[in-house]
């Protein structure tokens, strides 16, 4: 809190928004008239790489008119806010003079901006997203209407397919936007745009866009904090991906499963290697994971069927709360080996086995060699039947 307060004071001094006007190449000016905004207080904030810093507030006159001015030494992102959920994002460069119009009752859907190429690009990006949202709202209405229909499941598939098409169209729009505007900082906002609660572009699937944008913006805006942060993220992902690929090689079928030694609920360390001579399922789960809890009933069935033939389960919990973990064990009547360091996704075992989502499993043979990974319950059932026939 103290750090944020100091940053806020510094920003207020740096921008020094007042009735006066700044001069020089680093100055910017922002003015506008908003409908339904008589005597309304607007908040002006800087969007940094990891925070929102309050810069100033301004109150409109009885006609909804306002003006701000300040100094910036580098292009950056700023928020003009009516309230918590009613705001617009601007991309300001030194020397720009912006004019904004819109309805304060719904600023994101009504605003127009002049005088800033970057801010106009963000407005285009925002408009395209909300057009897609309107399509989704229509699909949501259709979904509500069909719930009572006899062929609901069939109709739902059509609605789901239509949603996927809208998502893919918005995804393609963002990729085209970045291709067309790879020299604009506006593309950073496009790169990290959410659609509902999903990111449109993922490093694992669209890394070329992250890398390409980092390269092009570094040439145009060397030293800009947003570009530096993007380059850092790109480099970190490349390093982590290289490490992941190296781990993947060690996890190939036929290789020895990496050793794990973790404490059980009583605090006793249990080594995976101590189970040599048995066919072992390494089961990654957590008490907070609903799909994991559903899978436990099936695992219990497999365990009861094959434990007498040399089958064991080595359950590794990614919980972080001991009581929650123990409660999950009791509720699911788990009687196979359970271990956890209660470090959640920060557990070293996550990277050791390249665990990206749970439930996840690895089946190893009596010698400790990997037989298969990432098995569905049906695949596991078939492989166990074949192994113990």
Q: Which superfamily, in CATH terms, is the homologous superfamily of the largest domain? A: Glutaredoxin
β-sheet strand percentage: 15-25%
The fold-level CATH name of the largest domain is: Glutaredoxin
From the N-terminal CA to the C-terminal CA, the straight-line distance is: 63 Å
Number of E strands: 17
Roughly what percent helix?
Answer: 40-55%
> Structural class, judged by helices and strands?
alpha+beta
Radius of gyration: 28 Å
Major sheet strand order: 15-14-13-16-17
Secondary-structure element pattern, one letter each: HEEEEEEEHEHHHEEHHEEEHEHEHEEH
Give the structure's gist in a few sentences.
The chain is built from 11 helices and 17 strands.
Salient structural properties:
single chain, 389 residues, Immunoglobulin-like, Glutaredoxin, 3 domains, 5-stranded mixed beta sheet, 11 helices, 44% helix, disordered N terminus
How would you describe what is shown here?
This protein is of the alpha+beta class. The chain has 3 domains: 2-115, Immunoglobulin-like; 124-248, no CATH class; 261-387, Glutaredoxin. Helices cover 44% and strands 24% of the residues. The protein has 11 helices and 17 strands. The protein has helices at 2-15, 107-110, 117-146, 152-180, 186-191, 203-220, 225-250, 290-306, 322-331, 348-352, 377-387, and strands at 27-35, 41-47, 52-59, 65-71, 76-83, 86-92, 97-103, 112-114, 194-195, 198-199, 261-263, 269-271, 279-285, 311-317, 337-339, 360-364, 370-373. The chain has a 5-stranded mixed β-sheet, covered by helices on one side. A hairpin with a 5-residue loop joins strand 16 (360-364) and strand 17. Helix 3 runs antiparallel to helix 4 and helix 6 (203-220) packs antiparallel against helix 7 (225-250). The longest helix has 30 residues, at 117-146. The chain is elongated, with a radius of gyration of 28 Å. 26% of the residues are buried.
